[in-house]
Amino acid sequence: MPLIHDQPLDTFNTFRIPARARHYLRVDGAEQLAAVRADPALAALPRLVLGGGSNLLFTRDVEGLVLHMTGQGREVLGEEAGKILVRAQAGENWHAFVRFTLEQGIGGLENLSLIPGTVGAAPIQNVGAYGVETKDVFHSLTAYDMASGATRTLDTAACRFGYRDSIFKHPDGANLVVLDVTFALPRAWQPNLRYAELGNAVREAGLTAPTPNAIGLMVEAIRRRKLPDPREIGNAGSFFKNPVVSNAECARLLAQFPTLVHHAQPDGTFKLAAGWLIDQCGWKGRHLGAAGVYHKQALVLVNLGGATGQDVVQLAAAIQADVAARYGVMLEPEPVFI
Ligand SMILES: Cc1cc2nc3c(=O)[nH]c(=O)nc-3n(C[C@H](O)[C@H](O)[C@H](O)COP(=O)(O)OP(=O)(O)OC[C@H]3O[C@@H](n4cnc5c(N)ncnc54)[C@H](O)[C@@H]3O)c2cc1C
């Protein structure tokens, strides 16, 4: 097993935060995971499963074993109940996979274009954008259970998807390593333009009968305008989840802040726009040391060059304190702190 010791992780996280892994292994299938289990010294180490490193913040070196998911491969499996089943290995680049489906005329993933990271990580936080979440297009996945050594198939119910949440973020799913994911994409495709910004862009472009590919390209254009490219400015996308508050809490806030951006949820709660709260506290474009708040989008924290994980943690804490003091709402970080 080609185990590497003292591996730098700077280029394996989109924040470009310096960190090292005491032990590092590239994993392209269950065989390497079984070998780790079979080696008592390796099996005893704390583990970090790593995809594209686009939803992580390294605050220290990893003293255990990094399992870097690199498995490649994707295939159209066929049709089932009006859905086209498409499978990809965990290490496939997410956007390249989306493009693969769109280039074959298969719709369903276009709203999730240009999200960084790997296919295997998409179910972990139920990746979502422009009104679509992974759970909406998900069929099943294969996972290796590091505790039992079994390979398991999990369907939508078993994954327990929620807003930026799934079983994999909870103790009973923490030992599962995703090996491949199968998506169920509609044969009878309809555009999903419920997200106002996307719907408006499609209308303004005069697209009366847009194809999945045309919508995918439009999503890419919108995202390029709004979000920093991690190849140029280190970041992990949205740094905070949009807080969800009760009806009563939302009413209390609206009485005091009538322009509060809020969206009703099907369960009667309200989702607040974390970026708006941060912006209102005056953080957009500001920085603490080498960690800053992106000047075009207050929800994105950026590495202005040479930031450490602790710099970002301090900036995030200062923002959380200001938002809590002004609105009584605690922002919860979206990336995983390591
Ligand atoms: C510019 C930018 C824009 C973004 N936009 C969005 C967006 O619109 N919507 C959105 O939801 N997210 C967005 N993100 C966040 C990020 O792209 C997603 O969370 C993505 O799914 C992370 O994939 P990754 O492979 O980089 O995961 P990593 O960061 O490597 O890992 C994230 C978590 O998943 C776990 N993990 C990774 N792979 C596996 C596996 N195979 N098995 C088990 N556990 C695994 C890791 O242990 C870790 O806990 C954005 C990030 C950036 C930088």
Distance between the termini: 25 Å
How many distinct domains?
A: 3
CATH topology of the largest domain: Uridine Diphospho-n-acetylenolpyruvylglucosamine Reductase, domain 3
Low-confidence stretches: none
| Helical content class | 25-40%
Strand count, sense and closure of the main sheet?
5 strands, antiparallel
Give the strand order of the largest sheet, numbering strands 1, 2, ... along the chain. 6-7-12-10-11
Small molecules (ligands, ions, cofactors) in the structure: flavin-adenine dinucleotide
Helix segment count? 9
**CATH class category name of the largest domain:** Alpha Beta
CATH architecture of the largest domain: 2-Layer Sandwich
Radius of gyration: 21 Å
Average pLDDT:
95
Order of helices and strands: EEHHEEEEEHEEEEHEHHEEHEEHEEEHE
Q: Which of globular, elongated, flat, extended, rod-shaped describes the shape?
A: globular
Protein name: UDP-N-acetylenolpyruvoylglucosamine reductase
Family: Belongs to the MurB family.
Function: Cell wall formation.
EC number: 1.3.1.98
